[in-house]
Amino acid sequence: MIVLALDVYERERALRIAEDVREYISMIKVNWPLILGSGIGIIRELKERTGLPMIADLKLADIPNTNRLVAKKVFEAGADYIIVHGFVGRDSVRAIMELGEIIMVVEMSHPGAEEFIQPVADKLIEIANEIEPFGVIAPGTRPERVRYIRKMLKKGIKIFTPGIGAQGGSARKALEAGADYIIVGRRIYGAEDPRRAAEELYKEVRAWSSG
Ligand code: C5P
After folding, report:
1. pLDDT in tens, 93-149
2. Mutate which of 57, 60, 136 to test ligand 1's pocket (most atoms within 8 Å of Cβ)?
C-alpha cells in the first residue's frame, strides 16, 4: 500500500496532485513543507477532497505537555495519525497517544540515521512493543533493517517505510522485508506526470503482493 508524501508548498498544487493520484494511494502524509506553505487547514481540505486518511508527519519530539498541546491542534485539524519521535521517551509518546493514533519513528532512512538513531533502534522497538502504536517508521533504504524490525516488532504494529524512489529504496525490497506501507514523495509528486508515476508504482506493488 502506498502513502503519498505530499511535500510541496502550494495548496493548489497539493490538491491537484492528491486528486490526480487518489485512486492509487491509501493515505496522504503531510509534512512541515506543506503545512508551512499552505496552513494547517490543508489537512482537512485534502481529507475532504480525497476521502483518504491523513498522516501529519511532524516528528514531534518535545516534553509531554508540549507534545500534547501540539497534537491536540493537529488532531482537531483532521489528522488521523501523527508521526512522533520515540527517542524523547515513553512519557512524551504516551502524551500524544492519549489523544489519537500515532506512528513512531524507530529508525530513519537518510545516511545520518546511522549516527544516532540506528544504534538505539532496539530500545525504540522495545518502547513500541510496550505502548503498541498504530505503526512505526523504518528505513525503506535499508531492507535488512526493515526485516530486523519486523522480526522484533509485535505482530499487528504496521511498518511504514519512507525512502522509496528518490532516496534510492526499492518498493519491492521494502515490502519483501516486511513493510506494510511504502511512503513515496518525490518519485510521485516530482514526476512530470504524477498520476502515471503513481499508477506505475501501484502496479509494481500489486504485482508483487499478488505474485
Ligand atoms: O521524497 P521522498 O520520497 O524521499 O519523501 C520521503 C518522505 O518521508 C519525506 O516527507 C520525509 O520527511 C519522510 N521521512 C523519511 N524518513 C523517515 C521519516 C520520514 O524520509 N525516517
Report:
1. 999 999 999 999 999 888 888 888 888 999 999 999 999 999 999 999 999 999 999
2. 57
Q: Which domain CATH number covers 38?
A: 3.20.20.70
In this prediction the pTM is 0.95
Q: pLDDT tens, 159-178? A: 999 999 888 889 999 999 99
Ligand 1 atom at shortest distance from the alpha carbon of 113 = 21
Q: Give 33-42 pLDDT, tens digit per residue.
A: 999 999 999 9
Residue 24 corresponds to which cell in the numbers above? Answer: 492509487
Q: Please state the domain count of the chain.
A: 1
Residue 106 makes CB contacts below 8 A (sequence gap 6+) with 86, 121, 124, 125, 128, 136, 137, 138, 149
169: annotated binding-site residue?
A: yes
Q: Determine which residue's CA is closest to atom 15 belonging to ligand 1.
A: 162
Distance of alpha carbon 144 from alpha carbon 154, whole angstroms: 18
What is the set of active-site residues?
57, 59, 62
- 136 bridge partner residues: 104, 159
Pocket of ligand 1 (CB under 6 A): 5, 7, 31, 57, 105, 108-109, 137, 162-163, 165-167, 183-187
Three-state secondary structure call for residue 181: strand
Quote the ipTM score.
0.89
Domain that holds residue 135: 2-210
Q: Which of 6, 17, 109, 141 to mutate to test the pocket of ligand 1 (most atoms within 8 A of CB)?
A: 109
